[in-house]
Structures are given as structure tokens and as C-alpha cells.
Write a structure and sequence with these properties.
CATH superfamily of the largest domain: MFS general substrate transporter like domains
InterPro entries: MFS, MFS_dom, MFS_trans_sf, MFSD1
Catalytic activity: L-aspartyl-L-lysine(out) = L-aspartyl-L-lysine(in); L-lysyl-L-lysine(out) = L-lysyl-L-lysine(in); L-alpha-aminoacyl-L-arginine(out) = L-alpha-aminoacyl-L-arginine(in); L-alpha-aminoacyl-L-histidine(out) = L-alpha-aminoacyl-L-histidine(in)
Oligomer: single chain
Structural class: mainly alpha
Helix content: over 70%
GO cellular component, one term: lysosomal membrane
Shape: globular
Distance between the termini: 24 Å
Main location: membrane
Subcellular location: Lysosome membrane
Bound molecules: the ligand N[C@@H](Cc1c[nH]cn1)C(=O)NCC(=O)O
Number of strands: 0
CATH class of the largest domain: Mainly Alpha
Strand content: under 5%
CATH topology of the largest domain: Growth Hormone, Chain: A
CATH architecture of the largest domain: Up-down Bundle
């Protein structure tokens, strides 16, 4: 169990680290943009290079983990994530900074899926929801608390020293992985299929399963408010429609991430305890819809709004159960591929909905209140779709099933 908990702690730490590197450029956008002589849109493009690599890499990461195990890829990933951050900090050339950002995205792509893969193979099936919620909570706390701490450090010391220290911390993580992360027993250890055969079989199994598609769509719709409201438009909406100060609005929006951290652990714990997922996802999505609906359309003080957004985040955290539902429907040999696919579809939602809400707001004469109706609409749609997803557990994921045993 010591090795299992070490794997959980190290993999969660990697997810936290990659989340910090992901959001770091936003902490001093003006200074970084003018340092590289970039316009706002040029800076946005430079920063977004991370995602251009991160998103498509997800499925590749899942396939690699299922075939070859996790250790070597977490080593490679953490090293690339750290090296990319150091490259970004050390150069005066925008092309090199862009390459650094892509290298960071490449390395980061191994963190979340790697962590869930390790949780699946190191721990008993009846702990997956709690521990995958724990991984998510660490990432969310990283955004909520880390960003504040780092933004103070950026103000005091400037962005370059902060990036350099972050990159150096990443190298420390590489050492931790090298010395303390052990490979769990998994079907990958016994896999004898050639790489091409493996890719073909895994993709056929995962992409041919309608349940995985449905749950990926549920994840996308359920996770959408985190990217769209929490990650982009929430502060604008609170300032314009509720007339809060920017600081009050930002504080309220950060409640979504604190709520997510609590909700993903509480939802996972409760789900594992009662051995059930589907109606928790359904109930969570309904309550998330109510909380965002109230936050958007009821008059409330800054405190009241913060409480509503905390509740929205809390019930939003139950979306992590979509990973448990999806992977439990499949053979243990393709867990990485399933998790990676669900995650890739979920984060692709940001690429669609962030600009869509901006477009709608423009078309509606700047009416964010109306444009953001998409938020409760998406979570309500998630609730409706999950209602029709059949409950199913593959024997590999039944309580008491032996972890890491090659596929039976
Ligand atoms: N919770 C996931 C995103 C997701 C996808 N489907 C449902 N939720 C998450 O935080 N992933 C981390 C990442 O950005 O890769």
C-alpha cells in the first residue's frame, strides 16, 4: 500500500504542477506580451499552443499507458513539462518561447490520464471514484490557491524568475518520479500485441462503445461551466450584470474551483460507499443546473453569489464520476484509452463553448446574462443524457476484483 499511496501522491503532484504551468502565462499577460512584442491576440496564441498539443495528445497518452505502463511516460512527461517552462523563461525569442509552450503541453498531457491510470491499477475498484476525485481536487486547489500565491510572487519578483523556479520545481518532481514511483501490476506488463495491433484493437473497443461516447458527451456538457463560466466569462458577467467590483467577482468565481475540489472528493467518496454512480451524476447535474441558474438570474449580494457558485462547483465536482462510469464498462486493458477519450472530449468543449458564448454575447448586444443561458442548458442536457446511459460494470471492475491482474 505504501507504493500505491506514493504513486497517488506523486501523480497528483504532477497534475498540480502541470496545472500551474498551464495557467502561469495568464498571471502576467501584459508583461509577457510586451516582452515578446506581441499584441493581445499574439499573446493568446502563444499561450494556447499548450492546448494545441495537450488535447490531441490525450488519446495517444491513453494508448501508450495501456500498452507500456505509466512510469517511463510520467518521467518523460514531467521532464518535458519542466523543460518547456524553463525554455519559455530563458529565451528572448518568441519562436523558442512557442516551442517551450508546446513542449510544456506535450509533457502535461501525461499527468491527468496518467494519474487516473495509476489509481485504477494500484487501488481496488471500490476506491476509484474517491481517489480520482482526489486527483481532480489537487488540480483545482492548485488553480484556486496556487494562482493567487504565484501572482503575488510575479508582482514581487517578475514573471521570469517565477517561471524559472517553477521549472526547477518540475525537475525535482522528475527526481521524485524516478526514485519513488513504482510501476503497478497491469495488463500492460503481460501485453504481447504489437503496437499497431494494440492501437487498432484498443481504438476499436473504445470508440465502438456507444456508452463511452454518451458518457464523454455527458462529461463535456457537465464540465462546460468550469471552462466557460469559471475559466473565462464569469468575472465579466458578475461585473456587468451584478455590478460587483472585479476583485469581488474574481473571488466569487474562484469559489467554483474550491467547490469542485470539495465536490469531486465528496461525490467520489459517497459513490464508492454506496457502490453507485449513475443517479449521483444525474442528481449532481440537476443541482448544478439549479445553482448556476440561481447564480445567473436571481439577485444576490457578493456573499450570496459566492455561496451559489460554491454550490455550483460542489455539485459540478460529481462530473468526475463520468470517468468511473466509462472505465468500469470496459476491460482493464483499455482503461487508459477510455479515460483519455472521455477527457479529450470534455476539454474539447472549451474550444467550442468559450468562443460560442463570446459570439452569442456579441450577437445579443453584449447581453452575457442571456448568452450564459448555455451554462444551465448544458448541465441540464447532461442530466437528461445520463438518464439513458445503461448501468454496466465489467467483471474487471467489480468490488473485490484483483488489481493489476492480466486480462481474464
Ligand atoms: N475533469 C476533467 C475534465 C473532464 C472531461 N470530462 C469530464 N471532465 C479534467 O479536469 N481534466 C484535466 C484536464 O484538463 O485534462
Amino acid at each position: 500500500m505504501r507504493k500505491a499511496w506514493l504513486a497517488f501522491a506523486i501523480a497528483s503532484g504532477f497534475f498540480l504542477f502541470e496545472f500551474v504551468t498551464r495557467v502561469e502565462p495568464s498571471l502576467d499577460a501584459q508583461a509577457i506580451g510586451s516582452f515578446f512584442h506581441l499584441s493581445n491576440s499574439g499573446f493568446g496564441t502563444l499561450s494556447s499552443l499548450f492546448f494545441w498539443v495537450y488535447a490531441p495528445m490525450q488519446i495517444i497518452v491513453g494508448l501508450l499507458l495501456d500498452r507500456f505502463g505509466a512510469r517511463r511516460f510520467l518521467l518523460l512527461g514531467s521532464f518535458c513539462c519542466a523543460a518547456g517552462t524553463l525554455m519559455f523563461a530563458a529565451t528572448n525569442l518568441v519562436g523558442v518561447a512557442g516551442a517551450g509552450r508546446m513542449l510544456t503541453g506535450f509533457g502535461a498531457s501525461f499527468a491527468f490520464v496518467g494519474a487516473l491510470w495509476l489509481v485504477n491499477h494500484w487501488f481496488a475498484p471500490e476506491r476509484f471514484a474517491l481517489l480520482s476525485g482526489g486527483v481532480n481536487a489537487v488540480g483545482m486547489i492548485g488553480v484556486a490557491a496556487g494562482a493567487v500565491g504565484l501572482s503575488d510572487a510575479v508582482t514581487d519578483f517578475g514573471w521570469r524568475p517565477v517561471f524559472l523556479v517553477t521549472g526547477a520545481a518540475g525537475l525535482l518532481l522528475v527526481l521524485l518520479i524516478y526514485f519513488f514511483l513504482h510501476e503497478p501490476a497491469s495488463p500492460a506488463a503481460a501485453a504481447q500485441t504489437g503496437p499497431v495491433e494494440h492501437v487498432r484493437d484498443s481504438l476499436k473497443t473504445v470508440l465502438g462503445d456507444g456508452r463511452v461516447w454518451a458518457l464523454s458527451l455527458v462529461g463535456l456538457l457537465y464540465y462546460m461551466p468550469v471552462n466557460v463560466y469559471g475559466g473565462l466569462w464569469g468575472t465579466t458577467e458578475l461585473v456587468r450584470n451584478h455590478h460587483f467590483t472585479t476583485v469581488a467577482a474574481e473571488t466569487d468565481v474562484s469559489m467554483i474551483f474550491w467547490g469542485m475540489a470539495l465536490g469531486s472528493v465528496a461525490g467520489g467518496w459517497f459513490s464508492d460507499r454506496i457502490g453507485h454512480r449513475k443517479y449521483l451524476v444525474l442528481g449532481g447535474a440537476v443541482l448544478t443546473t439549479c445553482a448556476y441558474g440561481a447564480a445567473l438570474y436571481l439577485p444576490a449580494s457578493a456573499l450570496g453569489e459566492g455561496v451559489l457558485l460554491l454550490a455550483a462547483g460542489f455539485f459540478g465536482g460529481f462530473q468526475m464520476l463520468t470517468f468511473a462510469m466509462a472505465k468500469e464498462g470496459q476491460d482493464n486493458r483499455v482503461v487508459g484509452t477510455v479515460v483519455a477519450f472521455v477527457n479529450m472530449v470534455g476539454i474539447a468543449g472549451a474550444l467550442i463553448f468559450q468562443p460560442l458564448v463570446g459570439y452569442l454575447a456579441d450577437r445579443l448586444g453584449g447581453n452575457f446574462e442571456l448568452a450564459l443561458m448555455t451554462v444551465p442548458a448544458c448541465t441540464a442536457a447532461a442530466a437528461l443524457i445520463v438518464l439513458f446511459v445503461p448501468k454496466y460494470r465489467h467483471p474487471h471492475h467489480m468490488p473485490g476484483a484483483r488489481r493489476g491482474s492480466p486480462a481474464v
